[in-house]
Design goal:
alpha+beta, eight-stranded antiparallel barrel, 4 helices, 9 strands
Length: 175
Amino acid sequence: MKNFSRTLLIFFLTLVLCSCHSAPEQPVKGDVDINRFMGKWYEIARFENWFEKGKFDASAEYFPLPDGRVKVVNSSSAESGKRSSVEGQAYIPDPRVPAKLRVSFFYPFYGDYWILELDDNYQWALVSGGNDDSLLWILARTPEISANLKEKICRLARARGYDTEKFVFNSEIRG
């Protein structure tokens, strides 16, 4: 029983410490049409994170499910050249705020997936892990975008308080 109590205490302390690594709440894109967001997106840049460490040429595909949820398939390559993918599901907790999704690749654990900025034509997006300021991505419908567009998106991220020096661009990862 003593070991169980100690394990439970460590678990709760870990949760508290993880919640300390957050930024002020970010406003999300207000008028997202989630059906237009469906399809394939390429990772242009990311803040390095433990679950993508050593990965490159990452992409995500979103598919609508009949019950209103979204099927998510993330794929990436490793240094060995092997391509792998992981499948998950997302849902929109509040239909009035379709830019705030919850996604899970390991049920029952969910994380935030917030669309912060989005091109009017759904050609690029700036996406975060909610209030977790250590998770940020630039996504596009094409594997590469212009330097001008990268700078524009970085300016938008900086205006939100993100340190864009943390971005690792896919072109740099590939070498």
